[in-house]
Design brief:
376 residues; alpha+beta; Lipoxygenase-1; Nuclear Transport Factor 2, Chain: A; 5-stranded antiparallel β-sheet; two-stranded antiparallel ribbon; 35% helix; iron; lipid metabolism; LipOase_C_sf; LipOase
């Protein structure tokens, strides 16, 4: 066990043989203001001359206040393989207690970051070079796609037929990529410190160069709408400040989409749903091994976890491929693999690369608000 100051291993000798154990129930009494302990496990070691293996009862939780913990033996038991019902009442009591303490709440995000930094010269931007390489090795590798055809919402104003033909040629050659941020279209920007923020929904078309670099060919900062002229297209041959401003808007939108979708939604919020559902329904039996498909289907706690995760935690995600029940060992293995990947590799891929780019994204998210910081 450990608290914030120390780690302690406590040994207690029983005066007599305890027999086969299904539960241990340690009691904690509240004595001091801050006396919470994190208990890893309780291990029952068989004495000399006693047949049988040592038994471990996993806990892995903070023990606070006054109360009694009910810990089950660590190899795991389900309702299906325990027809005598020995575990039913303690598990029902534990689940009911957790339902009182755990709930899925709406998450409100309020950004309090505000930057008033002014850059006075284009040389200050020499270190900012937005290109496709940053979309592959940067903080948000989820947005870049190989173009199989020109996007329908990429509209070419009159006089840009040559550019359209060039892009079509790149599509046919398999060298054209796109970064589409149209998901941001229609999202109302926040007001921070009485200052209205702004969002763009860019579409960027990028070409693979002979040296392997992926560079932008054209940037469209807003979606076309019926009854209005086509949105302007920004090109590398535009005036340097204009092209720089377009790239700043793209970087700002990339930061917004990365944090909202790739990082927060696909990472933290999905992982939180998984974690809360495990804590509510199956925390005490996550080390189970299911030997048959029938054992999987017959585990009511496992099925409840899966159903609540999909229908409540993910707001009815069965239409997006999430199951509401688990019918086989293979399906359980696939689902758990998805959960583990989401909480580890998926989150790491969009989190660990933020150090060098997120601060820039926060600064550029105010692009246009202050007249591009005195550069107009």
């Amino acid at each position: 066990m450990q608290n914030k100051h120390s780690v302690t291993e406590v040994k207690v000798e029983a005066p007599e043989y305890l027999g086969p154990l299904l539960f241990v129930k340690p009691r904690k009494r509240h004595l001091l203001q801050d006396d919470a302990w994190f208990c890893s496990w309780i291990s029952i070691v068989q004495g000399p001359g006693v047949a049988g293996d040592d038994v471990r009862f996993p806990c892995y939780r903070w023990v606070e206040g006054d109360g009694i913990l009910s810990l089950t033996e660590g190899t795991g038991h389900t309702v299906f393989d325990n027809p005598q019902g020995l575990f039913r009442k303690p598990r029902e009591e534990e689940l009911e207690e957790r339902r009182k303490w755990y709930w899925l709440a709406d998450l409100t995000i309020k950004d309090t970051f505000n930057v008033l930094t002014c850059w006075k010269d284009l040389d200050d931007f020499n270190w900012i070079f937005w290109c496709g390489q940053s979309k592959l090795a940067g903080a948000n590798p989820m947005v870049l796609r190989l173009s199989s055809r020109l996007p329908t919402h990429l509209v070419f104003p009159p006089g840009m037929e040559e550019l359209q033909a060039q892009l079509q040629k790149e599509v046919e050659g398999g060298t054209l990529f796109e970064a589409d941020f149209s998901l941001l279209d229609g999202i109302k920007a926040n007001v921070i410190l009485c200052s209205q923020q702004h969002l763009a929904a860019p579409l960027v078309m990028l070409k693979v160069q002979p040296d392997g670099k992926l560079l932008p060919m054209v940037i469209q900062l807003q979606l076309p709408s019926t009854g209005t002229p086509p949105p302007p297209l920004f090109l590398p041959m535009d005036p340097p400040v204009v092209w720089l401003l377009a790239k700043c808007w793209v970087h700002s939108s990339d930061f917004q989409l990365h944090e909202l979708q790739s990082h927060l939604l696909r990472g933290h919020l999905v992982a939180e749903v998984i974690a809360v559902a495990i804590r509510r329904y199956v925390e005490g039996i996550v080390s189970l091994y299911y030997k048959t498909h029938v054992a999987v289907k017959g585990d009511t706690e496992l099925q409840t976890w899966c159903q609540k995760l999909t229908e409540i935690g993910l707001l009815g995600a069965q239409n997006r491929g999430f199951p509401v029940s688990l019918q086989s060992q293979e399906q359980l293995c696939h689902f758990l693999t998805m959960c583990i990947f989401t909480c580890t590799g998926q989150h790491s891929s969009v989190h660990l690369g933020q150090h060098s780019s997120v601060h820039l994204g926060q600064v550029l998210s105010r692009a246009g608000q202050l007249g591009i910081w005195g550069l107009e």
